[in-house]
Amino acid sequence: MARSDWGIQLQSRSGGGKWICSYKKITILVCLFNIAIALYCLRSLYASLYIYSGSVGRNIVVYKPDQIRKMEESNQIRKSYKPVELMKLVKGLEGEFSSENLEVELPQHLKQKIIDEVLERLGSLNSRSTNGSHSQGIAMEREAVENWRKEKLEEVKLVSVGGISNSTLSDKEAGMLVKALESDWAVLVEEIGLWIPVEVVNEEHNDKPDGIEDSEEEILPGRPLPPECKPELHTDYDGSAVRWGLTHHKDSAADCCQACLDHAKHAKEGEKKCNIWVYCPSEFGCHSPDIYQHKHQECWLKYAEKPKLNFKDRYPEWYRNSHPSAPVIVPWVSGVVGA
Question: For residues 286 and 256, what is the distance between their CA atoms, to the nearest angstrom?
C-alpha cells in the first residue's frame, strides 16, 4: 500500500462509509492548535502591558495653569538672585591660582648651569673679601646671589623675546628660566641645595629703671673675694674639669674660689690641681654652648697648664648668630689661682 494511503480506517456504526485519518492531517491539526495557543499568549501579554501603561498614566500629576505660572515666577526670581558676577570672579581667581601654582621643572642641565654660575659668583666674592665679621659675610653672600638672580633674569627675558640671537638657550628653556627665577625662586633654591644662614639680629635691652646711673664696678653677691682669687667678671676660662659644677654648687664666688684653693692644697701626687674656678652668679642661670642647662651658683673647678679664655666680656657676633639663645654679656665669673 502507498505511503499517502497509509492511515487509519474507521467504520461508522451505520455502515454508511469509511473515513480515513492520515498522519498528515493530524500534523496540521497539531500546528493549528499550537498557533492558537501562541496567539492567546500574545493577547494576554499585550493586555497586561496595556493595563500597566494605563496605571502609570493615571499616576501623572496634572498641574493647573495657576500653579504652572507660580512655578515659572519662582524660577525667574531664583535666577535673578543668582550671584553671576561673584561666580565669574571666583572662576577667574581659580584660574589665576591654578596657573600660579604650576611649578616649572627645569631640566638637569639647566639646574647644573645655575649651580655652576652661583658657585662662581660666590667664589669670586670670597676671594675678594677675606676680612669682616660672620654676619657681614652672610649679608654679602645674600646680596651676591640676589644680584646674580636679577642679572640672569634680565638676560633670559631678552632671550625669550628674541633680543639676544647668539644665546645657547632655546626660547622654551628661556621661558622656563624666567618662570623659575621670577616666581619659583624659593623652590629652585631648595632644589639646587643652595642654603645661606639666616641673619640673626641680636639686640641688647637695657632694663635698668630710669634715674639709676650705671656703676663702674659690679658687685658680686656674697662675701668679698680675697686677692689670691684674682676674680674676673664676665669671663669664662677653658680647662679640664676636676670638679663638675652641675653637682657642685656654692653660695658665693668667694666660696667657689676657696673650694679651688682647698682642692689644690689636698690634691694627691700625680693628680690635677685646681688652678681655675668658674662661678655662675646669675639667678637666671648661665649660658654655655654645651647641651647642659647651667644653673645659679654652679662652681666649676678646672685645671689648665696654660689657662685659655673661652669668652671675655661679650659673646662675639658670629657666635650669637650660630647660638641665638646666647646673651650679649658673658654671665660667668672666673679666676686663675696659683699662677
Answer: 16
